[in-house]
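Notebook entry, structure prediction.
Reason for the run: the old model in the group folder had no record of what sequence produced it. Starting over properly, with the input documented here first.
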Amino acid sequence: MLRRRALALLAAAAMPLPLRAQPAWPSRPVRLILPDTPGTGNDTTARLIAPLFEAALGQPLVIDNRGGAGGRIGVEAAFRAAPDGYTFLLGNAGANGINAAIYRDLPYDLASAFDPVALLVVGPNALIVNPRSLPVASVTELIAAVRARQGALNYASAGTGSSAHMNMELFRHQAGLDIVHVPYRGAPALVQAVITGEAPLAFANLVNVMAQVRSGEVRLLAVTSLTRLPDLPEVPTVRESGLPGFETLAWNGILAPKGTPAPIRERLWAALRTMRDDAALQDRIRLLGGTLVVSTPAEFEARIAGDIAGWRRLAAAAGIQAQ
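New structure, fully documented this time:
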């Protein structure tokens, strides 16, 4: 009897790990690293999905803001995290697309350092101005005003290499404008700079400025999507305002450190997919100017690859590098 029991224990020990009973995932809180500061669109998305995450998976979602360096600090923290299913990254178009174009010393390849789980929210960027410091009502009027004061106007960004920076560089490059870049620390500081007139124009993720647009503190001149938004039908796109080649999108999505077990990623994706059908969540995100998509991993991977290629072309053409 003892011999049979010993042999059974040895046989169990020799079984491949996937065949053994594994602890249920998640069995403790899950950390979601955000490569940006509180108060951003990414932060809003994370806090909106947190209760739904807990309901679907039975564990709290701990939001870990790691802003700075255009998102590089947060991405590197996630890159170095153990791939055990307890740390994920809520990446975005800047941190997981633009950075590949402007940094030459990244310790990872952004196109392959993570396993995409799902693209969550997509939305346009917004071209905004201070209506008192820069009283223009259209993109055409803005271009004329800047050309009349070449080199004399400042624009705000959320930092060198941020989505706000690169959108304005694309705009400046295509329109032939000379505007002085003033980087701020994060999207909330960018918006405040436009409100005060310190830097009277900027591009920003629409979700970061909808409240200020509605209050009249800033004026929304155009959005960067291919078509107008159903909720803002009076606001034109940049493309139809005289720059036909202009299109950019803000996005965020969940990525796993490379090597995170596939069953964990698949279960997380299934939980996120159920959130797509939550009408209250859809409405909250739509009112902020975004669309809840919850893509497949393959669709998210294609979005990242396309963004990296596009921003690399712009960085090369405009001579942009991280400072």
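Summary: The CA atoms of residues 57 and 198 lie 45 Å apart.
The old model has been moved to the deprecated folder.
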